[in-house]
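Researcher:
Attend to token order:
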Amino acid sequence: MGRMIKEMVVQDCPIRNVLARVCDKWSLLVIYTLKYHQDGPLRFNALRKQIPDISQKMLTSTLKSLEADGYVIRKAYAEVPPRVEYSLTPRAETLIPIMDHLIEWALDNMAVILKDRDKAAG
């Protein structure tokens, strides 16, 4: 545990570096949507429809980041019009059980957290 705490305060902390990317506002939703969509890989617009409040620019940026880190596979087909599909890598699949626990915790605690926020806001 001591080693972990020391690594967390280091400038190039691997823990903060990885969690900052995976746990940002949109990455979790994109990963989860790709995992639980029933029809296999998703095209960009289909993915955007599943997450309606994400902008086109933010979805593009999020997908590029997730692809660069090895969580998402981008498969482009040589067709007219062009077709691109997104799916999860095995690395991303290993995140799903962890995400399930985090989401369950958030759902279990959301009401009391919102109450605490309201109380703190005055």
Q: What stands out?
A: Helices lie at 2-9, 14-22, 27-36, 44-50, 56-68, 90-121. The first helix runs from residue 2 to 9. The beta strands are 42-43, 72-77, 83-88.
